[in-house]
Amino acid sequence: MEENTVKRTLNFIEQMVEKDLAEGRNNGRIQTRFPPEPNGYLHIGHAKAICLDFGIARNYGGICNLRFDDTNPAKEDVEYVDSIQEDIKWLGYEWANIYYASDYFQQLWDLAVKLIKDGKAYIDEQSAETIAKQKGTPTLPGTESPYRKRPVEENLALFEKMNSGEVEEGAMVLRAKIDMASPNMHFRDPIMYRVIKSYPHHRTGYAWKAYPMYDYAHGQSDYFEGVTHSLCTLEFEVHRPLYDWFIDQFADSDYRPYQTEFNRLNITYTVMSKRKMLQLVEEGIVRGWDDPRMPTICGLRRRGYTPAAIHNFIDKIGYTKYEGIIDVSLLEHAVREDLNANADRASAVLNPIKLILTNYPEGQVEMMEAVNNPEKENCGSHEIPFTKELYIEADDFMEEAPKKYFRLTIGQEVRLKNAYIIKCTGCKKDENGNVTEVYAEYDPQTKSGMPESNRKVKGTIHWVSVEHSLPAEVRLYDRLFLAENLNEEKDRDFRELLNPNSLVINTKARVEPWLKDATHLHNFQFQRIGYFNVDPDSTPDKLVFNRTVSLKDSWAKEVRN
RNA sequence: UGUCCCAUGGUGUAACGGUAGCACUACAGUUUUUGGUACUGUCUGUCUAGGUUCGAAUCCUGGUGGGACAACCA
Q1: What is the full DSSP assignment across A105-119?
Q2: Which nucleotide has the least CA–C1' distance to A326?
Q3: pTM of the model
Q4: A389: how many CB neighbours lie within 10 A of its CB?
Q5: Which residues of A in 86-115 have their CB below 7 Å from strand B's atoms?
Q6: Percentages helix, strand, coil for chain A, rounded to the nearest 5?
Q7: Protein A495 CA to nucleic acid B35 C1', in Å?
Q8: Which terminal residue of chain A, N or C, has fewer Cβ atoms less than 10 Å from its own Cβ?
Q9: Which positions of A are catalytic?
């Protein structure tokens, strides 16, 4: 055997970390953080950031903390705090510590006071519109606020009032005094604090009325915690100079955090915007954040995706400095790769038609052995009852078959998976010409394992016993979105692009009795149909299966032939 | 008439001055108790024009193209 040393090339962030380690930056310490705002559920895009933040810490002997960036009570909720923790754990990561930006409100306040005393921040009483107007545009410099030269003592007094409740929302803000003519818009006296009184903070209630803004709070939070590598997505690139500016104002040691940006995940046919996902949930277009059509972690989980599959996917896509759009087929491939290796095989007939073996003894039941997973060693097997009357897929029989049809047709032989070779003798039709029953004769010498069973037949089909099989509901999920790239559809209502067939519920399905005992974390491959898991709402009396992903191309090819 | 970031097959990435490689997709073929899986093969790429160099995807310059920035969001 050859040595199994698949050396993955390091991404640019890993290279940077190794360089920092070699040069002893920040005393060779590695510390990252995953900093979600608790204003929605985590989705597959967050998984990319999570794998990076936690992965870097894990691989380089550092630590990664979970920090909730909860500086805007108007949008945040404990529901999200809980789900975020659950999803990170499900992905297989543990944070060293759990922090909240709201834990730093006092420290941030004190530093803001220091900045005011240094003459580097002032209270502006203009309206939001006026301030926006004075900011200028990316190509035109801004103009200075008339309040910019307000005396320090007055600034301090007003800052206190901002937090005491005496000041109405929108009446005043604290701004850093930097440069209204800077080519970087973020340097044009950025807002550090605003007043929010009408929403309680999910942790501090109404204790604070003045809340810090992201640009001020984020870098300082990193600094307070000792973060060495502050990894975020590309859209924060232009914020980095400001991040550094704030650090420069307060850093009092050799240590400092550094921000590095990487590309956000985009997937074809998939919406990754929290705002749009919230809309889908609130308007009842989906059944909730964990609807299996959602790209949320919990939606993917409910659909039967495994953590291994998601890691598999993240490993394939890479981290770069430019935006791209990943083909959803890469995600589906990553899932199939894991499921093919680990999911048990089971028999289910989605669209049943009766097959009667005319020469099989009435009332006889044979237990046929089915290997749980032919791709996996020592995974065991189970038995499926075989009888005279079976259900097969309606699609698996054709009275007049085209040349490349490999399944059941009159006069031809086919194998019943795990059982006998049969020869089709005829069928019965109703007054409309629809086939209602198919007849065949079985060859007793061809049971799986018998010497005669090696005979070549053109196809193999799956089946379940009429008497023993169980009714089940099968939910076939498809892509929710049709647009190739929703970013290009900004001005259009994205709901127009929803795929109306994204969920097809099939209640005719019949499954083998073994599946009654299936736990809902279990994944199955239904023969030639796809990978399924048991829906959490499933009960022993009502079996419900969700399709994780279909088998590669099988139906499409069939249609072509 | 700005600042910052970026540009490798259809898609996603690697090559760190020395043979443009990998994966996905698509299309063929082999194996197969499902047309799945596995394996093999084929197609397709360094945005452009200069420069430096024995040698450039890589370094430099100019174009072109894309993205981010004008929330009291993060």
Answers
A1: HHHHHHHHHHHHHTT
A2: B12
A3: 0.94
A4: 14
A5: none
A6: 35, 25, 45
A7: 36
A8: N
A9: 37, 264, 274
